[in-house]
TrEMBL record:
<dbReference type="InterPro" id="IPR036182">
    <property type="entry name" value="PCuAC_sf"/>
</dbReference>
<dbReference type="InterPro" id="IPR058248">
    <property type="entry name" value="Lxx211020-like"/>
</dbReference>
<dbReference type="Pfam" id="PF04314">
    <property type="entry name" value="PCuAC"/>
</dbReference>
<dbReference type="InterPro" id="IPR007410">
    <property type="entry name" value="LpqE-like"/>
</dbReference>
<protein>
    <recommendedName>
        <fullName>Copper chaperone PCu(A)C</fullName>
    </recommendedName>
</protein>
Amino acid sequence: MSAAFATLVNTTGEAVTVVAASTPVSSSVELHEVVGDGGTTTMRRKQGGFVIPAGGRHVLQPGGDHIMLIGVRTAVEPGVEVPFTLTLKDGRTVSFIAVAKDFAGANESYASHE
Ligand SMILES: [Cu+2]
C-alpha cells in the first residue's frame, strides 16, 4: 500500500471536485481523508471527493487528505515517475506525474480498510 500527495490548484472560476483517481501502478486507488483527534486517527473514503474551491487549492498531505494506492502491482523505487489521472465530477480528467519517495509515515494507520 502507498499514498500520493499533491497540491491541487484550481485556476477556474468554479469549484472543482475530484471524484476518482487512477494510476497504472495500483489495481485500486481511493480518495481518503484522515479523521480523529488525540492519539487515534483513522482514514476512510472521502465522501463526495476532494473539493477545490474556485481559484483556490486543496492540499493532499500526510495526516490529511490523500490518494490511497491499494494493491500496488510492482515495487516503486524512489525517484520513479508515477503517472496519475484524476477524474472530475463533470467527467473531465486531469493527469499529473508524481515522483516516488521513501516515506516513513505519519501517525495515521495505513493498515486497516473497510
Ligand atoms: Cu488512505
